[in-house]
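[Help] Beginner question about ligand-bound structures

Sorry if this is basic. My supervisor gave me a protein sequence and a SMILES string for adenosine-5'-triphosphate and asked me to "get the holo structure". I don't really know what that means in practice or what format the answer should be in. Inputs are pasted below exactly as I got them.
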Amino acid sequence: MVQPASTVVKTSAADIELVHVSKQYGDALAVDAIDLRIPGGAYCCLLGPSGCGKTSTLRMIAGHESVSDGDVLIGGRNVTREEPASRGTAMVFQSYALFPHLSALDNVAFSLKMRGVAKDARRKRAGELLELVAMSAFAERKPAQLSGGQQQRVALARALLNQPRCLLLDEPLSALDPFLRVQMRAELKRWQKELGITFVHVTHSQEEAMALADLVVVMSHGHIEQSGTPHEVFNRPRTEFVARFLGGHNVLGTSGRLFTVRADHLRIAPHGVTPVQAASGGSGMSRIGGVACTVREAEYQGTHLRMTLAPLDGSPELISMMSDAEYDPQRFGPEARVTVWWDEQDAHPLAA
Ligand SMILES: Nc1ncnc2c1ncn2[C@@H]1O[C@H](COP(=O)(O)OP(=O)(O)OP(=O)(O)O)[C@@H](O)[C@H]1O
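Answer (accepted):
No worries, everyone starts somewhere. Holo just means with the ligand present. The predicted complex, written as structure tokens, is below.
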């Protein structure tokens, strides 16, 4: 019988706190005085485009990169100047970093061997961890004889060996094909819940972050643009950067103020139908009378149609997601004239 995760990895989750943490590489400021608290037992995703500082942040938590300024606290203890091994963290690398000449079992047992643990004891312990990640049947295989997803499981088992209180994952799914990525994503989430420890996962995929995280931290140019639950961040993006980076939003402007409307909240009627406007608070963020547009493209995406709409007044294009059930190619197909509007409550103001 497979043992519950909590009996194989007996540890408690630790909070992670970053207090005014900066990272300077020569003249380049990669991370700029960020403050962040990740509650113990949370699944946190650091999300942002290439070069925004997410890997540097993860590596500073792990202790693989020195902190230029500020403090890193794990479980309430200041670990800023501590070695990686004494922080209670473990890291899973993008490339998995397995030893090619060792079997899966010996890869997991390697650090126990270095510490002089007897062969039987280390093989027993490594075997338990391989069982946890459903890899017992592949224990004697070398990494080259394993698929990407299987190598990832071995890397995870190895990282769990020392009972970490926080697991740090650097783009752990990026080397996998799309199908396996979705499957492994679900397993990561399940393991995190079963183990009950804090996971910090770096990704540039908003879809991955939305699917996995309890806490999404959106970064740009070394700053935290916004942090919150996936629902908060998606429904209430704070800045234009967050709205554009997450996608699925239209960024609109009226009299110098910016706001967003989710693509699936745009309302569309065939040309000539007068929109019925929900009560307007007079903020100017709804469009009484609607925007006359031409449908530029209608892309079928299974459950939805993604429509690109070109306003006749020459303002920037809008994106609409319409459910397959609502879509009528006669009325909303390419080149159709339509009227687009939105309700006041669906328009969300952005910080300047
Ligand atoms: N060792 C280094 N020396 C000099 N500059 C570095 C070093 N490591 C990172 N940088 C720079 O710091 C900035 C942040 O890099 P970092 O790797 O943290 O970003 P990232 O968001 O993880 O990017 P990616 O998704 O591409 O890995 C980048 O401009 C990068 O070029």
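A couple of things worth pointing out: The chain has a mean pLDDT of 90. The longest strand covers residues 28-38. Feel free to follow up in the thread.
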